[in-house]
Design brief:
Layout lengths: L1 H12 L3 E3 H13 L1 H4 L2 H4 L2 H9 L6 E3 L2 H13 L14 E7 L5 E6 L6 E5 L2 H4 L3 H15 L1 H4 L4 E6 L1
Amino acid sequence: MDALKQLLVIIIAKDFSVSSRTLSRLAGSLVSMSLAMGPVVRLWMRAMYRDICLAPCWDQPIRLSSDSCSEVLFWKQNFDNSGYPIWAPSPKVEVLTYSGAGGLGCGGFAVHINGKLAVISWSEEESGRSSTFRELRAIWYVLESYSEDLRGKEVCHRLTT
């Protein structure tokens, strides 16, 4: 981590005019930490990769593109991020619904809401309806059963059978 921070300081101190070898060292350091930092690494290195590929040789200083300069500054400002993750999983609540083709009932599970499970049995009228109707009804019942927990949240729904 200290080596990465030092590379950032060097690149900025040299007014963004460094060899592609130095820029490659920075890119390699970031890639080596990508499992810990998440997909933000790949997104905030594209211009650096482009500058590395366009360089005429490894050791001749090149002037970084404005996009690469922005990426270097992003990493300088956000690498530590005051102890908070740069990238975090989606805050969406995932709701899974299950419905059986036999028409007996359905169930649902909200993944990020204390692992609560909702199980609903079909009425006689509903069990005679189409499987598409029952699947849509299952979604409705599960979302309705979690309405208080889901209020104001974005929901990602996945249907499994």
